[in-house]
Amino acid sequence: MIASSTIDQLKSRFRGDLIAPGDPQYDAARAVFNVTIDRRPALIARCAGPADVVQAVNLARQESLVLSVRGTGHNVAGFAVCDDGLVIDLSQMKAITVDPQERTVRVQGGCNWGEVNDALQPHGLAATGGFVSVTGVSGLTLGGGLGWLVRKHGLALDNLLSAEVVLADGRLVTASARENDDLFWAIRGGGGNFGVVTSFEFRAHPVGTVLAGIVLHPTATAAGAIRRWRDLEAMAPDESTQGALLFHFPDDPSVPPPMRGAAMVGLGGVYAGAVEEGEKVLRPLREYGPPLADMFQPMPYNAAQRMADFLWPSGLHSYWKSSYLTVLSDAAIDVLVDFFSRVPSPRTVIVLEHNGDSAWDRVPDSATAFGNRAWPYNFVVTSAWSDPKEAERNIAWTRELFDAMRPFAAQGAYINYLGGDEGVEGLKAAYGAKLARLAALKAKFDPTNLFRMNQNITPASVAQGTGN
Ligand SMILES: Cc1cc2nc3c(=O)[nH]c(=O)nc-3n(C[C@H](O)[C@H](O)[C@H](O)COP(=O)(O)OP(=O)(O)OC[C@H]3O[C@@H](n4cnc5c(N)ncnc54)[C@H](O)[C@@H]3O)c2cc1C
Q1: Residues with beta carbon inside 6 Å of ligand 1?
Q2: In principle, which of 135, 362, 394, 467 could form an S-S bond with 130, CB 3.0–4.6 Å?
Q3: Is residue 450 a contact partner of residue 57, using CB atoms and an 8 Å limit?
Q4: Model confidence, pTM
């Protein structure tokens, strides 16, 4: 509950919208990507700019409110919304300013990657965002930022030049290599623990047209196809970021047979160099089998970033498990293929990523709070279903699969792929030895743990644990 007199006080200075239970927009404003998350905030402060964010942070601190921060609400753990507290909603803060000469782009906290790359494409530039277009810039960057340019240009956070941050005490500061460099270190991997980032300044890269797409194989030959992808990846140049996916095509009339509703393995991604060079590099992957279909073609980068969007539609229940792999052995591939043959939901996708042996692991490990650059392969099980009654069956299958993969799993996970039920073990897996420095910086910038609706790093003076 927030007293109506308090809300009135905020209203007098607030330029954006204040949305409370009973307002017509309330249910849409509290909904997030993962529909399992059903939280009822006392107030949603849809900010128009940094000054609104400062007002909202001050209110939450002064009134000891539970506070959550929403970029686009895309994270499956659902920390963007809270029960009975205040949500700082950045969804209307979408300004994007491109500097083509300097090859930089400044982006407000409510943007997604599709919007950013749409703004960059006319200049022949692209930013290292996600593998899909609808993921939020904010959460993705603050946790890491894997995407189709990761092997050529690193993570989104490796390309962050500066950020504007509203701290727990209400100050708006710049974090960069020159100003507040400790804060700059912490926000590059430490998530939303240190303040609300109102805008990000990124380095952009000359990436206009890329060779992008996927080859499809039936699941009966999936293990061999994934092995072939793995062996080619081991030699692939930085320009090539390719993944392997086990998924079902939607059972939808817009999808032609034999793909409609079919289980498939897809091998593909982006070659971010000269198209003719990409044709040569990707030929062995595209000729193997031969595949049922070869969908590689030259396309603008902002189209390539949308090619996998159909696999993760909004409006579904989600539960994710993920870990880096010490080794992508034949046995590990067999486990994934075997489990996929009895996947309870056709909306579930198993993803294998190869990020390493590239620009990603040439960044010194100590440069940012992001952990685990040593492991080149990552797997993520993105379980999804529509009927809430199916939750138990899908979650049980996901956990069984994750347990079966433990022999191949590294002691390391990507914070943005965690499902939210890992607790302190998830933090240890994501940050390892860096957790102590992060907790000390948390004590400096947010000693009362105002920003705790996240993969929470408790301030160093408090016993380490999750504060959710
Ligand atoms: C379908 C799907 C595809 C994905 N693909 C990728 C991918 O290709 N690569 C990748 O790296 N990750 C990917 N992810 C994971 C993604 O990085 C995280 O879900 C990320 O948190 C989403 O960012 P968001 O701003 O939408 O998050 P939100 O759900 O809005 O927030 C996530 C967390 O960040 C905090 N936060 C958000 N904005 C701010 C801010 N401005 N300041 C401070 N804290 C903030 C929130 O409080 C919350 O704790 C994907 C997720 C999904 C569901």
Answers
A1: 33, 68-76, 79-80, 90, 109, 130-132, 135-136, 138-140, 142-147, 191-192, 196-197, 312, 416, 453-454
A2: 135
A3: yes
A4: 0.97
